[in-house]
Design brief:
Layout: E1 2-13, E2 16-27, E3 31-35, H1 42-50, E4 59-64, E5 67-68, H2 74-79, E6 82-85, E7 92-96, H3 97-104, H4 110-119, H5 124-127, E8 131-132, H6 138-152, E9 156-160, H7 168-183, E10 187-192, H8 195-198, E11 203-208, E12 211-216, H9 218-221, H10 224-227
Parallel strand pairs: 3-10, 3-11, 6-9, 9-10
Antiparallel strand pairs: 1-2, 1-4, 4-5, 7-8, 11-12
Length: 245
């Protein structure tokens, strides 16, 4: 069963076509990945699904659990269980880690906060009273953001470059968190240009110039990382030496 469908999406921003007749179907309870080089529209897809300003005026349709959500804003989509963690996590001057996680948590108690922090590899005693501000590294803020998503208990999670700013030692915590989201009943979309992140997915899409080039198993799409491209008819396709024709 599909939890989310993009149907013939066309999106222009400032007169430039960013998404070109893009159709994608995401299966409920699966971990999906969206792969491709920088600038092909991966993050745009996430922003469109989430309903950010500037990404709702598009042609085509967006279905969540077989119902259109095209006209819904970010907050209305969040109420339906859709959430997103961005590549660069936000700072909230003056807001403690505990209150940040509690803000959207299904169960607003300290134990929920502690469990979520432990799940992403953070000691609650070291972080729960700290502020979500510049005193935290980007990697720390990213893990706290993931902890907040765990506490939300969402239906659909979009993670934009979940390994960005994360040290190698913490990657296992991030990958364990992705699996925990699935085990808790969430469908997950990973936006990535990392082979290691792709390996966490069960199904993947490869984008090129705002359109779907191919889809299939993570193993199949992983071949993209060997050549940084796969055969296609795009006008900018590289030759075997990586030089654009």
């Amino acid at each position: 069963m599909n939890i989310l469908e993009l149907k013939n999406i066309n999106l222009q921003i400032n007169g430039n076509k960013i998404l070109d007749n893009l159709s994608m179907d995401f299966w409920e309870g699966y971990i999906h990945a969206i792969v491709g080089p920088n600038g092909v529209g991966k993050t745009t897809v996430g922003n469109l699904i989430m309903g950010l300003e500037g990404y709702r005026d598009f042609e085509g349709d967006l279905l969540f659990k077989n119902r259109t959500i095209k006209k819904l804003n970010l907050y209305e989509r969040a109420k339906r269980g859709i959430t997103m963690a961005w590549q660069e996590p936000a700072r909230f001057e003056g807001l403690t880690v505990e209150n940040f996680i509690k803000a959207g948590a299904k169960n607003k108690n300290r134990k929920t906060v502690e469990r979520a922090l432990e799940k992403v590899g953070m000691d609650p005693d070291d972080y729960i009273t700290r502020a979500v501000d510049k005193s935290l590294s980007g990697g720390e803020r990213k893990k706290i953001e993931l902890a907040s998503i765990l506490a939300i208990d969402p239906k659909l999670v979009i993670l934009d470059e979940p390994d960005s700013g994360i040290d190698v030692a913490s990657l296992k915590n991030i990958f364990d968190t992705i699996q925990s989201l699935k085990e808790n009943g969430a469908s997950v979309i990973l936006i990535t240009h990392s082979l290691e992140v792709l390996k966490q997915a069960e199904h993947a899409f490869l984008l090129c110039s705002g359109t779907l080039l191919t889809k299939g198993s993570a193993e199949k799409i992983g071949s993209y990382f060997e050549d940084k491209c796969i055969p296609c008819n795009h006008k900018n396709k590289p030759d075997k030496n990586g030089v654009k024709l």
